[in-house]
Amino acid sequence: MVFANLPTVILILGDFMKYLVLLLDGMADYPVDKLGGKTPMEVAFKPNIDSLALKGEVGLCKTVADGLKPGSDVANLSVLGYDPKVCYTGRSPLEAASIGIELEPTDVAMRCNLVTLSDEKNFEDKTMVDYCADDISTGEAAKLIEYIEEKMGNDIYRFYSGVSYRHCLVIKNGTTELGTMTPPHDISSRVIGEYLSQNENAMPLLELMKKSYDLLKDHPVNLERIKKGKRPANSIWLWGEGRKPSLEDFKAKNGISGAVVSAVDLLRGIAKCANMKSPEIPGVTGYIDTDFTAKKDAAIKLFEEGSDLVYIHMEAPDECGHRGEVQNKVKSIEIIDELVAGPMIEYLKGTPHKILIMPDHPTPLSVKTHVSDPVPYVLYSSEEEMKGVLTVNEKTAKETGNFVENGPNIMNKLIGKM
Predict the structure, then answer these.
(1) pLDDT tens-digit profile of 110-153?
(2) I need a surface site. Which of 60, 67, 97, 297 has the fewest CB within 10 A?
(3) Tell me, what's the pLDDT at 246?
């Protein structure tokens, strides 16, 4: 793809090294029967990404350290060069930062999903039909969260709306000793009873969840969704508890300025806590229907405004993995290759640059949730081209023998600190 203003762009970039990270959330997978025993990365037509594999370093990176859960929070912190064992305080506080919530040291923030549960009488007998309520729109969700805040918010509990199905509860003088608060995307199509925490401290939160079902099942927003053949967002689901985070300033840590392009509050919250730019981008959803071109344009603008490193986070492969959507996962990789990787590679031509492309963690279609396996990466430098491999995927990455055992070191490799 050729950009009419490419010469001007090159003039703006000059001779300073630029760093690009394309993070395809959850892209790595296990072999899939429906794909002839291959993974989505093996099947997907991704000529732009593979063009870098031909001239760059391909290998595996362990983004989730032993003893940590393979969440996007832990894994993305790792890719960004932060050691989760040192700085991680929970997922929801990072998302709260993105929404603009100022947490007190004694506050506990929790992720508040809008989900679809089945209609059994007893709450414990209900099934997790859909962890994202048919990817409910942000506008519809805001009305539901505002209603929940009106009916259940008080001096202890405050509900804040976020993006799509992802929202936040802040508990004043709360505790993180809640037992296991299971992420809803881990229990798709399962009866929820055995996944509800039995910890005494979690009982008030369970009551909030139960009450929310009674409040939301007949809400006008949900009745209208049902009329249109969409799943209702008929319950909240609380998880991801944590306290106010503290991340070292990205530029002070690495000597270069950084920016994040993402549709999800988690990544934008990490950016805010690390003092990285993270613009709001209309039309981005985090799913396969997101405006990938808008993300590419935002990244180019950030480079033009002086950012040394731009981290483009794309949620679509992860969402497809959680939903078990085999063909859509393949398609998401192909779309990203065409609409983001290709144009960004073309844009950076003519200036010194390095590009890192990788997932944060695998989200295998067979289990529909995250796992801790090492993930493939390709690291390309315009200044040090080398003989690579024909294509990057889980198999070829393993065969190279290149292995980054400590996840945060992948950022050090990118920016030349190791």
Answers:
(1) 999 999 999 999 999 999 999 999 999 999 999 999 999 999 99
(2) 67
(3) 83
| Alpha carbons 310 and 45: distance in angstroms, whole number | 24
Residue 130 and residue 19 in one domain: no
What pLDDT was estimated at residue 15? 58
What values do phi and psi take at 125, rounded to 5? -90, -5
**Judgement on whether residues 54 and 113 belong to the same structural domain of the protein:** no
Strands (E), 82-234: 108-117, 128-130, 157-163, 166-171
- 268 inside domain: yes
**What is the C-alpha separation between 270 and 276, in angstroms, rounded?**
8
Q: How far is it, in rounded angstroms, from Cα 116 to Cα 95? A: 22
Kindly list the distances between the CA atom of residue 71 and the CA atoms of 186, 232, 370, 373, 374, in Å, as whole numbers in the listed order: 11, 26, 7, 12, 13
Q: Mean pLDDT for the chain? A: 94
- CA pair distance 282, 349, nearest whole angstrom: 28
Sheet of 309-314: strands edge to edge? Answer: 258-261, 309-314, 18-24, 353-358, 375-381, 57-61, 403-404
Assess if residue 206 is contained within a domain. Answer: yes
| pLDDT over 50 at 79, yes or no | yes
Give me the helix-helix angle, 91-99 and 72-79, nearest 10°: 80
Contacts of 103 (CB under 8 A, 6+ apart): 93, 96, 97, 109, 170, 243, 244
